[in-house]
Amino acid sequence: MYPLTRLRRTREFDWSRRLVQENNISSSDLILPIFVKDGKNIKEEIKTMPDVYRYSVDNLEKIVERTIKNKIPAIALFPETKKEKKDNNGSEALNENNLICQSVKEIKKKFKNEIGIICDVALDPYTNHGHDGILKNNYVDNDLTIQILIKQALLQASVGCDILAPSDMMDGRVIEIRKALEKNKYKNTKILSYAAKYASNFYGPFRDAVGSTQKNKIDKRNYQMDYHNSKEALREIRLDIDEGADMVMIKPGLAYLDIISRAKKKFELPIIAYNVSGEYSMLKLAIKNKLIDERAIYEMMISFKRAGSSAVITYFANEIVEKYL
Ligand code: PBG
Question: Is 183 a catalytic residue?
Answer without folding.
Answer: no
